[in-house]
Design brief:
Blueprint (H helix, E strand, L loop, with lengths): L4 H10 L18 H8 L10 E6 L25 E6 L1 E10 H6 L2 E3 L8 E3 L11 H22 L25 E2 L2 E2 L9 E6 L8 H13 L8 E4 L1 H13 L24 E2 L2 E5 L1 H5 L5 E5 L4 E5 L6 E3 L9 E14 L6 E5 L1
Parallel strand pairs: 8-16, 9-11
Antiparallel strand pairs: 1-2, 3-15, 4-5, 6-7, 9-12, 10-11, 12-16, 13-15, 14-15
Length: 348
């Protein structure tokens, strides 16, 4: 017997939807290998007027000279020091939440001046599906990581108060007139990164990309560099995988697998000269899916100021508004003190 309209209406009024509790499951979080690389390798500095500076040298004046008996010999006075200069910047990320929102979430603010202490209402778990305050704090943390990671890839031209990132000194055309960190690249050819763009990878069997990288690794190590980080966009990774497949070898058992298991048709995670090649999704986001970057952690450093690395703040609320504020700040810069041990590469 079918339900009557009155019975259906009664069921609808009596039943509840099944609501999943807990934090919101994010659908758009990406890996950030550059940020992880720089954070793991950072080195603080104590402060200063407005810049982080350091000495570099690429030219030598002294030289050996043959002589005999009372031959006149030459003495030279070397004066080849240069000094790079990297400005430090201040970054902020903050959120606010009204006390009304917190009450809706079953939370009362104990100290209403800066919201440093809160209490949860009894039986709060009966009404809360997703913690509002926790979600806002998670939004701030993830928002910071996303924007800071993007900033560390870009060249700083997007915002005059943003930290100039990797693309401000690892240049597509390092031979172009101009300076890097205040040192003229034209007059000092040793003060340039390596670059090889538009490598023809259209025919995988030609191995153009692999052969070019083989030559470049030698040059990156030429002056004592020890590149140890290889980040690439998806198209660059595809081209490398295709070249690997084009010259790949059968296993001892051909394409079969002992025990009747499945054949794994994938290409294993790649490395070059022992350096793992990692996919960085941010390169795709920035329109650089065809690019790869080989970096030297000995010479690229994230330099936060002492006591100013991800500093937390609980600002006092304005007296006319019942709003709680949370923020974090960061002060520092991104420094590279040897450019010729890092390189940028791209496919056509």
């Amino acid at each position: 017997m079918a339900f009557t309209a009155q019975e259906l209406n009664n069921i609808a009024n009596a039943a509840l939807d099944y609501n999943i509790r807990g934090g919101a499951l994010s659908q758009t979080i990406q890996e950030r290998p550059l940020l992880s690389f720089l954070e793991s390798n950072k080195k603080s500095f104590p402060g200063g007027k407005e810049a982080i500076t350091g000495p570099v040298k690429g030219v030598y004046t002294s030289e050996a000279q043959g002589y005999s008996h009372d031959d006149t010999v030459i003495y030279k006075n070397p004066a080849n020091l240069k000094r790079y200069s990297v400005n430090w910047y201040e970054l902020h990320c903050g959120i606010n939440v009204t006390m009304t929102e917190l009450k809706n979430d079953g939370i009362s603010v104990v100290d209403s001046m800066n919201g440093a202490e809160t209490t949860e209402h009894s039986e709060r778990e009966l009404t809360v599906l997703t913690g509002l305050l926790e979600d806002k704090v998670e939004d701030m943390n993830e928002g910071w990581a996303r924007s800071f990671n993007s900033m560390l890839w870009q060249d700083g031209t997007q915002d005059s108060k943003a930290v100039p990132g990797l693309l401000s000194f690892i240049l597509d055309d390092p031979t172009a007139a101009g300076s890097t960190f205040g040192i003229d690249r034209t007059a000092n050819t040793w003060w340039r990164n390596r670059a090889s763009l538009l490598i023809n990878a259209s025919t995988a069997s030609n191995q153009n990309l692999v052969n070019e990288l083989q030559k470049e690794i030698r040059q990156l190590r030429r002056y004592g560099g020890r590149p140890d980080k290889f980040l690439a966009g998806s198209d660059f990774m595809d081209a490398l995988e295709q070249e690997l497949r084009a010259k790949g070898n059968y296993t001892e058992t051909g394409w079969s697998k002992s025990g009747g298991g499945r054949i794994d048709a994938s290409v294993a995670d790649m490395a070059f000269k022992g350096i793992p090649i990692e996919y960085d999704p941010t390169l795709d986001d920035l329109g650089r899916a065809k690019y790869g970057y080989i970096l030297d952690s000995n010479h690229i450093k994230l330099r936060p100021m002492d006591g100013e690395d991800m500093k937390s703040h609980n600002p006092a609320r304005p007296p006319e508004k019942y709003v709680i504020y949370r923020a974090m700040t960061w002060t520092g810069g991104l420094v590279c003190d040897q450019l010729n041990s890092c390189g940028v590469y791209s496919i056509s």
